[in-house]
Amino acid sequence: MSVHVRSLDRLRLRHAAVSYARHGWDVTPGAVFTGERYRCDDPGCQTVACHPALEEWERAASHDPDVVAAWWRQTPYAVLLPTGRAFDVLEVPAHLGVLVTRGPARQEIHGPVAVTASGRWMLFVSPGQPLRPELEEHLGVVLHGPGSWVPAPPTPQPHARVRWESSPAEVEWRLPQSYAVQREIVDVITAMTPAPPLRLPYRRTVRPTPRAA
User: Fold this and answer.
1) Are 176 and 111 in contact (CB under 8 A)?
2) 118: which DSSP letter?
3) Which residues does 111 contact at the CB level (< 8 Å), separation at least 6?
């Protein structure tokens, strides 16, 4: 990557990070994507996937625009958003994301939706509500709450960037209720689950005892 392209990328990431901070969303810098892996400032770090650049990222995360702008002054960090604060995030497979956000309840649950390069959909919702019992065993559904984070657009990833399917500005930074979105996810999963085969009641055939001659 040329110096000019790298500088433009840094400015793009910085602009997005500051925009999130100005709307009250905490931001923390993530490791820099080099085109092959993510590298942070810790020379001994073996993590190659996206991860926070700061060891104490939870404490350091900030929505002060000046603090956030300073982080990206020289380095094109990934933009990470801590969850469990201003919002939680429900992460689902692409097919669920499409069906949920375009279903009959789409007006009620309309909120920010980001999509990762791998096709995972991240639905931003109001914070503080746990995962419904029906979804706890569903491995494709992940709730990001306190102690977690998600990569935000336009963070680069292998093959593509994280992008907004529905940006915060489009929905005026409103967040739908988590349980309302979860209820729609449950309804979609239920509708996709094939009904069990019909089992007829078991009847034992009783044969008459032969008469003695």
Assistant:
1) yes
2) T
3) 123, 124, 125, 166, 171, 174, 175, 176, 181
Question: pTM above the 0.90 mark?
Answer: no
User: Which amino acid is it at 184?
Assistant: E
The alpha-helical segments, DSSP class H, found in 23-165 are 57-60, 65-71, 94-101, 133-136
Residue type, 192: M
- Residue 80's contacts (CB-CB under 8 Å, 6 or more residues apart) are 27, 28, 29, 30, 50, 52, 57, 149, 150, 151, 152, 155
- The answer to whether residues 89 and 144 touch, using CB atoms and an 8 Å cutoff, is yes
Q: Is the pLDDT of residue 208 over 60?
A: no
* Residue carrying structure tokens 């990206």: 72
pLDDT band at 203 (very low <50, low <70, confident <90, very high): low
